[in-house]
Amino acid sequence: MDERSRLLASYDEQLRTEAETPSAVKVTALGPVRLVTFAGGRGFVTYQDLGGADAGAIDRLVRAALAHYRADPEIGRVEWKTRAHDDAPGLHQSLLRHGFVPEEQESIMIGPAQRLAVDVPLPDGVRLRRAAEESDVRAMSAMSAQAFGDSAVEAEAMATALLVRLARDDGMELWVAEAAGHIVSAGRLEPVPGTDFAGIWGGVTLREWRGRGIYRALTAARARSALRMGKTLINSDSTEYSRPILERSGLLKVSTTTPYLWRR
């Protein structure tokens, strides 16, 4: 088994369990599928595998999962997380039939944290720091929404969810890059209890600040923090902007993931 196959096997065995959703408010089992509810009215569907289900059984799972979330008036959006290496006949077609819309495909990147924990020079006037105050969390969420084209309502929901996470003190860290008092880049570090992994999530840099090494420096800072926690592997679902940066740092693309979104 080569390194890519070993890393993918570790991903499936260690991360596609309850460890994937430590901040869940509620989890309901539906056959092989886990229906997760997060703070801020967000639903999330995931699983380790679909148990060999055929297209008909998968369509019934999709229908039942959506009915579960429709019955909760607080749920405003649901993400069904698909992975390209899964055996899931008919899933794409079923999700489309039930009103889910595919988002941009992302690369599942995995590798040793040590490869990322390097010194990266920052542009003059830019500094990295952890963020924990409510004002920082709201500013970080607003910047992320601006960069991704999300609405103010979505930014507020994300800020609320992050503040709930920080109050739980479950190990999540928020990291930001700041210039002249304004947040220009940000990302989360999420150590996964009981595994070798820490995830780097939500990485985003304002367009006018890209290409200056800020994202790579922010990634290195999170990797160093992960190593201090005893985590040896880093995983990330990466856009085409961040994938080449992580590949140059030694992480491997082991598969792809496509989120499908349903909105009320």
From TrEMBL:
Ranges in coiled-coil conformation: none
Cleaved signal peptide residues: none
Gene3D superfamilies the record matches: 3.40.630.30
Keywords tagged on the record: Transferase
Domain N-acetyltransferase stretches: 126-264
GO molecular function, one term: acyltransferase activity, transferring groups other than amino-acyl groups
InterPro entries, A to Z: Acyl_CoA_acyltransferase (IPR016181), GNAT_dom (IPR000182)
Protein name: GNAT family N-acetyltransferase
Organism: Georgenia ruanii
